[in-house]
Each structure stands twice: as C-alpha cells, then as structure tokens.
Hints:
Order of helices and strands: HEEEEEEEEEE
Structural class: alpha+beta
Number of strands: 10
CATH architecture of the largest domain: 3-layer Sandwich
CATH class of the largest domain: Mainly Beta
Bound molecules: FE2/S2 (inorganic) cluster
Shape: elongated
Strand content: 25-35%
CATH topology of the largest domain: Rieske Iron-sulfur Protein
Strand order of the largest sheet: 1-10-9-4-3-2
Helix content: 10-25%
Oligomer: single chain
Largest sheet: 6 strands, antiparallel
CATH superfamily of the largest domain: Rieske [2Fe-2S] iron-sulphur domain
Distance between the termini: 94 Å
Amino acid sequence: MPHPQSISKPSRRGVLKVLYGAIWLSLVGAVGLGLGAVLRLVSSGGGASQPQPVELGQPGGLAVGQARDQGPVALARDAGGYFALSLVCPHLGCRPAWHQKQDRFLCPCHGSGFALNGERLSGPAPKGLSHVALKVTGGKLVAFPGQPVDPATRLKA
Length: 157
Ligand code: FES
C-alpha cells in the first residue's frame, strides 16, 4: 500500500488539461457523427425513396366522369381518355379521396376540393393534384406516382 504522502494531488493545470481533452474529444465525436449521418443520407440517394408503380387493373369498367382511388393514386377518365392523379394533397400531404356524388376529390384534413381532372376547386391547397404517368403494361394499367406528366396527357384504352 502506497504511503499517503507519496500520492500527489493533481495540479490545477493537469485537471484543466484533462477537461479540455474531454471537451475536444466530445467535439470531434459529434462532428464525426454528423458527417456519418450526412454521408449515409448522400449514399442513400437523398433519403427519399422512389414511389413504386401502382397496378390499376385492366382498362374498362370506369365510365367517363368517374375516378377510382387505389393507394397513392387515382385512375380517372374523362372524354379525352384515362389519366392518373397523385393522391398527395398539395397543402400538407394528406390523402384526398374521390367522392362520386360530390363529383370531386376531397381532402379529409382541411377540406380542399379537386375536380376530376385534378384542378383545385376549394380549400387551402395552393394548387391542384399532380398528374402522373399512366401506361399499359401486360394488358394492365400501371400508374407511376414518381413520374409527373403534363395535365393534358390522356391514355386512350
Ligand atoms: S392537407 Fe389537404 S387540405 Fe390540408
């Protein structure tokens, strides 16, 4: 057992060195964690996952002036043909739904209304619903929620 007088008290300078060292290591660790998070975000393509295509079944069964919701999109038909709308409200991202009796899409969150062709009719939404790509693949309609198209685009099926 060491003699009590052989144990030296740490000097004030020594204590400050240890304290500064701990602070420095904490800062380096925090910067390292932040850089790691940024690198993970960049390597994952920005963190946003690409929406998956949505199969909408065979053409037909949808009269002119009607729409049918399916997941993140709606299949709609007017005199020009079929088209697909993204069901992500441009206000705050809720999911509008088609209401045939009211002849419009209605957002359940703050009441925005949208016409069959996606145009904004009422409510706080700053614009209409986005049109997205619609193709026939293997005899079935497939919507591509991640691919916006011109609102005048129609598919004749
Ligand atoms: S999120 Fe649709 S009206 Fe607010």
